[in-house]
Design a protein that fits this description.
The complex is a heterodimer of chains A (about 160) and B (about 290). Chain A is mainly α. Chain A is about 45% helix and about 0% strand. Chain B is built from 14 helices and 8 strands. In chain B, helix 4 packs across helix 6. Chain B starts with a strand and ends with a helix. The chains are: A mainly alpha (about 160), B alpha/beta (about 290). At the A-B interface, helix 4, helix 5, helix 6, helix 7 and helix 8 of A face helix 1, helix 2, helix 3, helix 4 and helix 10 of B. Chain A: Keywords: 4Fe-4S, Iron, Iron-sulfur, Metal-binding, Methanogenesis, Oxidoreductase.
Chain lengths: ~160, ~290
């Protein structure tokens, strides 16, 4: 995975780009990170890399954040750290940097309006519970699904998920 | 009491429908005015889909909230992920006219509009505020003699901006709801820690997710409990199916029953394990089921 277009990640981070420069590298974020206890994610280093290295967008640890928000709640500088991670991830996806499993979730949403659609096993479970085999969501309302599909097209989500 | 529409999301109706059934049984007993939010979609998922494209995330969340506004009802979620997405999106839409305008530019194409007139609720904070532990204690018919590990989950509490706030570090409202059923909420190390599933980690990096889950389970096992109680089907799935995955991968012998709060409350209201779909979990703990025969 490589970054093709854009050298300056910081300037492309719409809301948090300038605020992550406020980081004083105290490390409260990394010390509060439940993922970092078990994985290679180091939130402080990730933010530092975002300031000066476009390769941050292809850093594997960008996707190890469970978005628990401990770092954001505890940051003494009040930096919206998880929001910054969301923005970096969005830039990565625009560059085509995306796990196949995540692309699959996007495709399921495009097709069904659910990221986790119904399956045969759970139709049976629903019936055993006395529920309708399909829930009263877009699964039961095709016109609702059409609305969702129109919105996804209008936002360009179908193009974003398509493999070039 | 606020009238609400029930937002199901994806994981509950399509993977753990017992939680949907339990919620309806409990709200009916508690005389909460709640109807299905028909035609709703994925919230959309806060970890994966919010990571991809914020405009899409806001537009789909906006449609779901607009459907509830059209019914003149607050939107009730029974999942931390749905709550996280919809409450955060509602906050941004209400706080920023420009964001609202952009969302409505998309919603206009399908003949809808979000006004920012209603709130997004989560079943636990809703029951705590609108019903209260006292009334729950009064209506239960089978006080539960259980030691419970309460798992709040991250997105029930965080980000705290825009949420009507309890402490994010040491909250108590969920423990109070659990204890209203007669059960004891047992303290355990790293109680507020993440289950490991969120942020798209479960879907793309399952081994990393399970590392967090295994740690959480070991902390719970260190104090000895009868079950884990959560407020989120994604945590529920990670803590339930995660035990099966860990046992298969590492040869561990995890066997802790995992219940959504509405399933615990349902037991205290006299419903059976089968009516509440507790037996539909991946992890089957027959000793636990026997307590309620």
């Amino acid at each position: 995975m490589s970054v093709r277009n854009e050298p300056n990640v910081l300037s492309r981070m719409e809301k948090t780009g300038s605020t992550i420069l406020k980081c004083m590298h105290c490390g409260v974020c990394s010390g509060s990170c439940p993922s970092g206890r078990h994985t290679s994610l180091n939130v402080r280093k990730l933010l530092r890399k975002a300031c000066n290295d476009p390769a941050v967008l292809s850093d594997d640890s960008l996707w190890m954040c469970t978005t628990c928000y401990n770092c954001q709640e505890r940051c003494p500088r009040g930096i919206d750290i998880v929001d910054a991670i969301f923005e970096m991830r969005a830039l990565a996806v625009q560059e085509g940097i995306i796990y196949p499993e995540h692309r699959k979730v996007g495709e399921l949403l495009l097709e069904h309006g659910h990221a986790v659609p119904i399956n045969e096993e759970n139709r049976t479970k629903r019936e055993a519970l006395g529920l309708d085999p399909l829930p009263p969501t877009v699964h039961s309302f095709p016109e609702g699904l059409e609305e969702v599909k129109k919105l996804l097209t209008s936002c360009g989500f179908d193009e974003l998920m398509s493999e070039e | 009491m606020a009238n609400v529409s029930l937002f199901l999301g994806c994981v509950i109706p399509n993977r753990y429908p017992g939680i949907e059934k339990s919620t309806k049984l409990c709200l009916d007993k508690l005389e909460v005015d709640c109807i299905d939010l028909e035609g709703a979609s994925c919230c959309p998922a806060p970890g994966v889909l919010r990571s991809f494209d914020k405009a899409t995330w806001l537009a789909l969340a906006g449609r779901n909230i607009a459907l509830s506004e059209e019914l003149d009802r607050d939107l009730l979620t029974i999942c931390n992920g749905c709550y996280g997405s919809l409450a955060d999106a509602n906050y941004e839409i209400k706080a920023d006219e420009q964001v609202k305008k952009e969302v409505n530019s998309h919603l206009g194409l399908i003949g809808r509009n979000i006004k920012g007139s209603h709130d997004v609720r989560h079943i636990t904070e809703f029951l705590h505020k609108e019903v209260g532990p006292g009334k729950i204690r009064d209506v239960i018919t089978r006080p539960l003699e259980l030691r419970v590990a309460v798992h709040y989950g991250c997105h029930l509490l965080k980000p705290s901006k825009g949420r009507v706030g309890s402490s994010v570090e040491r909250p108590s409202f969920f423990d109070e709801l659990v204890e209203a059923t007669g059960a004891e909420s047992v303290e355990y190390p790293d109680k507020m820690e993440c289950c490991g599933a969120g942020g798209g980690v479960r879907s793309a990096l399952p081994d990393e997710a399970l590392a967090l889950t295994g740690h959480k389970l070991s902390m719970i096992e260190s104090v000895g409990v009868d079950c884990i109680v959560n407020a989120c089907p994604f945590c529920h799935m990670q803590l339930d199916a995660g035990q099966v995955d860990l046992n298969g991968r590492d040869g561990t012998s995890h066997n802790i029953p995992v219940l959504h709060y509405t399933q615990l409350l349902g037991l205290a209201l006299g419903f059976s394990v089968e009516e509440l779909g507790i037996d539909l979990n991946e992890m089957k703990n027959l000793e636990f089921f026997k307590k309620f025969v």
